[in-house]
Design a protein that fits this description.
Elements (H helix, E strand, L loop, with lengths): L4 E14 L2 E14 L3 E5 L6 H9 L6 E10 L2 E2 L5 H7 L4 E4 L3 H4 L6 H42 L6 H47 L6 H14 L3 H4 L3 H20 L3 H10 L9 H19 L5 H10 L10 H55 L4 H17 L10 H4 L1 H38 L19 H24 L6 H20 L4 H14 L5 H4 L9 H13 L5 E5 L7 H18 L2 E6 L11 E6 L2 E7 H6 L4 H8 L48 E4 L2 E3 L15 H12 L8
Parallel strand pairs: 3-8, 3-9, 6-7, 7-8
Antiparallel strand pairs: 1-2, 1-4, 4-5, 9-10, 10-12, 11-12
């Protein structure tokens, strides 16, 4: 199994405030999602599946309460990061497909625009973020070098010399950006020109008439923009000849127009559409071929080239092949600038690392003292807030400002501590009120019973007390302190293993990445071409023709494909599918499931698939988590859950799956899920479980290990539990599945 964890959910607890009481929707669940795998979360409606997925996306309802746990992605706790940070992850790194495709689409916006919108917004945000990050890192680097030299009284290194090198790095990056911008503009024009020609050829092949003159005008306009010397070198004469051929083709096509055609175009605005001559078609095909050849050539490394041109303004490297020019430029860059720049950079990196290490040791002492302070319990809201503010200041000071990957544990510490302290005082104030409300309801019910009233008037349960003891909440506060303390202690112990040279290279790579992020501008035309390719990828026929259609012009299955295309448009790491086939008929379900499976393989996606039907995920899930009443009751590989199910609820789900190979009646699960305002003391499934033991009504079962990858929360797995045979309907089904050669479902 791939052990790279993309997402980790640990001890997640989510509740909802309602007029009737607090609904405990998710109760202490944990799971990992690995790279390139599909994790299916299966259970009845109300089991907490969708609540879990919405918590991951940060789109829970306004009355939701995150009562505990963490959701870790890329070093961030998604429950604790600010909304502006979550905004960069939601829809970009983690995307979601919802149940009803029509409700996910804007009915008055063409689907092409809905797909390209995410691409364009992401590109705009990335360019802005890249510029800000580049400037901030360079400024931090200079400031840290100044402080280091000042504190060390190093007279051998001139501050002015350091400033000169930092300014040179900034200036030659600007030069490199100008070169790359010009190159990218020509590259973009060539890509757009190819798109125009492809659209034209597509319509021509479909025997549809087009405005040939307008098409030629657009191609000529883009051809004039293909003029960057690093992009067109070696093709100058070819492009001139093709421009002449275009002008001739335009003249020939215009000569076909009659006086009536011209009048219609001038006064009525009607496009004149006809069939292009074979000569015009050949000319456009040749232009497309030339553009594709230029695009396929090796690209110049403008970070290297930029410094050479910055130091030699009159010289050009465009006449040299890109690999040769890149090699020569990097040698000059290293010898003339980079070696000295890195030596100054090391001063900052070493100073920042050592200073951060000192601050971590100081923070550890303060955190441990704070643990004792909170454990004593004699604190007021004011002194707790003051201490939390001081601790957060110390922890933030222990974050290395030159670290490319920031410490998410330290960054989220302040908010996490404030929330736990706030909860402590909330429950301290709220507990007596809850006790009084509970006592009042009990007294009212007892009085009615004493008067002999029975039936509906007293057939109700007293709302349970929503209590958290001060001792329990203090443990939560200490847990936050312990978490960051353990992290800092591990960092201190590993200080001699840190490679400072590697950190210097990481900073330079980071600056280069942010600079290139600023350069790349996605145009609407390129976004359209990518959207059309994406539509083809998700199986929408004649994507070019359907690009401008509205959602109502598509069937349910096609609309779901569009929603998938929108989700994939930002190229996410993780795709959450929240019952994406529920609103579709069976044949379309199979197609959508196969599509999601194929996209997972091709893009190496990690997928969380939410469903109430085990059969739906039978042939696509790598691992399955079975949920009931807010808890995971069974967790294992797909093979283990289907061939060796252990929990009675999993048996019930399997028994209710249709099977074409048998005429036997399907088993319905008796009863209904429990009201989670009043969660059961024991196993939540006990009331509906004919195999329930007495202990099931008294105590929640822990997760018993069936194998290193398979767990189930049922007292039937306890060594002292009576032997219970797996239902015959399940054993027969397993036998048939094995005979089919591992095909778990009927899809």
């Amino acid at each position: 199994m791939n052990k790279e964890i993309k997402l980790s959910v640990n001890n997640l607890r989510v509740s909802f405030r309602t007029d009737a009481g607090k609904v405990q929707a998710v109760r202490d669940i944990s799971f990992n999602l690995y790279k390139g795998e599909t994790l299916a979360i299966v259970g009845e409606s109300g089991s907490g599946k969708s609540v879990t997925s919405k918590a991951i996306m940060g789109i829970s309802a306004v009355n939701s309460i995150y009562e505990g746990g963490e959701i870790l992605y890329d070093g961030h706790d998604l429950l604790r990061i600010p909304e502006e940070e979550m905004h960069k992850i939601r829809g970009d790194k983690i995307a979601m497909i919802f149940q009803d495709p029509l409700s996910s689409l804007n009915p008055i916006m063409r689907i092409g625009k809905q797909i390209t919108e995410a691409m364009l917004l992401k590109n705009k945000a990335n360019r802005k973020e890249g510029r800000e990050a580049f400037n901030k890192m360079l400024a931090t680097l200079l400031e840290t070098i100044k402080v280091a030299l000042s504190e060390n009284n190093d007279a051998n290194i001139s501050i002015q010399e350091v400033e000169k090198y930092i300014k040179t790095f900034d200036d030659f990056n600007i030069q490199a950006l100008k070169l790359e911008n010009s190159y990218n503009e020509s590259r973009t024009a060539a890509e757009e020109m190819i798109t125009i020609v492809e659209d034209f050829l597509f319509l021509t092949e479909k025997k549809q008439k087009v405005d040939v003159v307008a098409t030629l005008n657009r191609v000529m306009g883009h051809l004039k923009s293909v003029n960057d010397k690093y992009f067109v070198t070696g093709y100058e004469e070819t492009l001139k000849a093709q421009n002449t051929a275009l002008a001739a083709a335009k003249s020939a096509e215009r000569s076909k127009l009659t006086v009536a055609d011209v009048a219609k175009k001038l006064f009525a605005g009607n496009a004149y559409k006809n069939e292009a001559s074979s000569e015009t078609v050949d000319t456009l095909k040749q232009i497309k071929k030339t553009a594709e050849e230029m695009l396929a050539r090796p690209k110049y490394d403008f970070f290297r080239i930029g410094y050479y041109v910055y130091k030699h303004p009159g010289e050009e490297l465009c006449r040299m092949p890109a690999p040769e020019a890149n090699e020569m430029a990097v040698k000059f860059l290293n010898e003339d600038f980079m070696e000295k720049f890195i030596s100054y950079e090391k001063i900052a990196v070493r100073y920042s690392f050592n200073k951060t290490l000192e601050n971590k040791k100081k923070a550890i002492r303060e955190l441990k003292a704070a643990m004792e302070f909170f454990k004593e319990g004699n604190f007021t809201a004011q002194n707790a807030a003051t201490l939390a503010k001081d601790l957060n200041k110390s922890v933030l000071a222990a974050i290395d400002p030159l670290a490319v990957v920031k410490d998410s544990v330290a960054y989220t510490f302040g908010g996490a501590l404030d929330r736990e302290i706030e909860k402590y005082f909330f429950y301290l104030k709220n507990n007596p009120k809850e006790e009084a409300d509970y006592a009042r309801q009990v007294a009212k019910r007892d009085a009615m019973l004493a008067k002999g009233k029975t039936g509906d008037k007293v057939n109700w349960k007293v709302v349970p007390k929503s209590l958290v003891t001060p001792e329990e909440q203090i443990r939560n506060i200490v847990s936050v302190l312990t978490h960051v303390t353990d992290k800092f202690e591990a960092d201190v112990q590993a200080d001699n293993k840190v490679d400072l040279d590697k950190r210097c290279i990481e900073i330079i790579d980071y600056l280069k990445e942010k600079a290139s992020q600023v350069v790349y501008k996605l145009t609407k035309r390129i976004a359209k071409e990518r959207a059309i390719k994406l539509m083809d990828e998700v199986g929408i026929p004649e994507a070019r023709l359907r690009f401008r259609q509205y959602p109502f012009e598509f069937s349910g299955g096609m609309r779901q494909r569009i929603v998938i295309a929108i989700a994939l448009s930002a190229n996410p790491d993780i795709l959450i599918c929240d019952e994406p086939t529920t609103a579709l008929d069976v044949t379309i379900q199979a197609q959508i499931l196969e599509l999601i499976n194929r996209l997972k393989r091709e893009r190496n996606l990690s997928i969380i698939f939410i469903t109430h039907d085990l059969g739906v995920v039978a042939n696509m899930a790598d691992r399955i988590a079975v949920m009931y009443a807010g808890k995971i009751v069974e967790y294992g590989t797909a093979e283990e859950v289907f061939y060796n199910p252990q929990h009675p609820y999993t048996w019930a789900l399997l028994s209710s799956m249709p099977d074409l190979d048998t005429n036997e009646k399907l088993d319905a699960i008796p009863g209904t899920p429990p009201n989670m305002i009043y969660p059961p003391v024991g196993d939540a499934f006990a009331e509906r479980n004919k195999y329930a033991l007495e202990i099931d009504y008294e105590m929640q079962p822990p997760m018993f290990e069936v194998s290193p990858t398979h767990y189930a929360a049922t007292w039937l797995l306890h060594p002292n539990a009576p032997k219970v045979e797996v239902p015959k309907i399940i054993t027969e089904r397993i036998k048939r599945m094995k005979e089919r050669g591992g095909n778990y479902g009927e899809q």
